[in-house]
Amino acid sequence: MGLIVQKFGGTSVRDAERIFNVARIVTETYDAGNDVVVVVSAQGDTTDDLIEKAAEINSNPSKREMDVLLSTGEQISISLLAMAIEKLGYPVVSLTGRQAGFLTQTNYGNARIKKIDTHRLHRELDKHRIVVVAGFQGLNRFDDITTLGRGGSDTSAVALAAVLHADLCQIYTDVDGVYTADPRIVKNAKKLDEISFDEMLELASLGAQVLHNRSVEMAKKYGVKMEVVSSLERKPGTKVKEAVKVEKLLVRGVAKDDDVARIAVVGLPDDPGVAFKVFTLMAKKKINVDIILQSIGRHNTKDISFTVPAGQLDLAKEALEENLEELGADHIDAAGSFSKVSIVGAGMQSNPGVAAKMFEALYEANVNIHMISTSEIKISVLIDRADSNKALNAVHDAFEF
Ligand code: ADP
Ligand code: ASP
Ligand code: MG
């Protein structure tokens, strides 16, 4: 007996049949004597469909209005699930993010949760109701609806588990756990019984969308017991926890991010302060710069290239071109269609052979590497997007899991 937070993603609430499937999972948990708080995402592809609908009206809508629109997807799901639970004969109430007490920072589209006012939640739980909360949304101090970024319902769930001191936070999805690579792309991917917060955070940040990276960050910070399970099959999933048993494994998993663009600032003077100028321009526009490469200076000039999210390419290019003279650069080279493939594992830091093995696998698959970046826990390469699935498979199969 305890308090359990259960989160169900879009495919898990796709249609009436799936909603009743979720209602049964929830009510079984309730019947076992638990308080249950449920977090749901928008049904199926609703969020993508809403984004398309907005584009039909305005190619550059304000972020505030986008959040008003996108938050409606989750509102549909909470009411439908509550109706299904009602029909099964259980006490239930649905709450929007705002009603559930989610207060966020002011920025629209990717707001962080600042606080959850739990009064209403506790009132409902005291009445022994199942509480169904809309994920992905909150309210900022201007009393405006905000959303938490794509995939953000996971973070809503973990945040609730943290403030309510839940005994467990279950993330129900359309795969039966966290795998060594996306099982939809890599056929040899293996399911992990458990994974550490640090490794999961790295995988999620490098593109493994099975968990929103901020949900993992938060679970680690507040010690939330978390697991990823299938909503369609009843079997054990993957536990995400502080430390996992020590194994010989060097690499825990591989991930890819297909949303990568590259910019090169060509012919910069080989002087101090040049990188400072380039990246100050990017920072001013709030552009997320990732991998950076600077060429060796030759004939008093050098090039700096770096990657940005594909959606920020135009903004970055514009900012640099406007300042071409001030930077003393010759020209800007911008290209959109790249992918980043990464290997992640806490055991790789003292093993130089790991990088060589990854590069060998890419060479054998005839994949050209454009950029490389390493840290203690990961190695990433930038490649052409057309090669990304082939590269993910090749790199995955080069290691033992
Ligand atoms: P939900 O709608 O339930 O939030 P998502 O689509 O956000 O589900 O995340 C689940 C998907 O994540 C899976 O269908 C799978 O294709 C993908 N995925 C990517 N990397 C992994 C991984 N390492 N392990 C499991 N699933 C992964
Ligand atoms: N519906 C939102 C999205 O599609 C949030 C989520 O699914 O977690 O990104
Ligand atoms: Mg998701």
UniProtKB/TrEMBL annotation:
Record protein name field: Aspartokinase
Function recorded in the entry: Catalyzes the phosphorylation of the beta-carboxyl group of aspartic acid with ATP to yield 4-phospho-L-aspartate, which is involved in the branched biosynthetic pathway leading to the biosynthesis of amino acids threonine, isoleucine and methionine.
Annotated keywords: Amino-acid biosynthesis, ATP-binding, Diaminopimelate biosynthesis, Kinase, Lysine biosynthesis, Nucleotide-binding, Transferase
Stored PROSITE patterns: ACT (PS51671), ASPARTOKINASE (PS00324)
Stated family: Belongs to the aspartokinase family.
Domain ACT, chain residue ranges per copy: 263-346
InterPro entries attached to this UniProt entry: AceGlu_kinase-like_sf, ACT-like_dom_sf, ACT_Aspartokinase, ACT_dom, AKii-LysC-BS, Asp/Glu/Uridylate_kinase, Asp_kin_monofn, Asp_kinase
Annotated metabolic or biological route of this protein: Amino-acid biosynthesis; L-lysine biosynthesis via DAP pathway; (S)-tetrahydrodipicolinate from L-aspartate: step 1/4; Amino-acid biosynthesis; L-methionine biosynthesis via de novo pathway; L-homoserine from L-aspartate: step 1/3; Amino-acid biosynthesis; L-threonine biosynthesis; L-threonine from L-aspartate: step 1/5
Recorded GO MF terms: aspartate kinase activity
Gene3D superfamilies, alphabetized: Acetylglutamate kinase-like, VC0802-like
Alphabetized Pfam families for the sequence: AA_kinase, ACT_9
Domain of life: Bacteria
EC class: transferase
Chemical reaction(s) catalysed: L-aspartate + ATP = 4-phospho-L-aspartate + ADP
EC numbers: 2.7.2.4
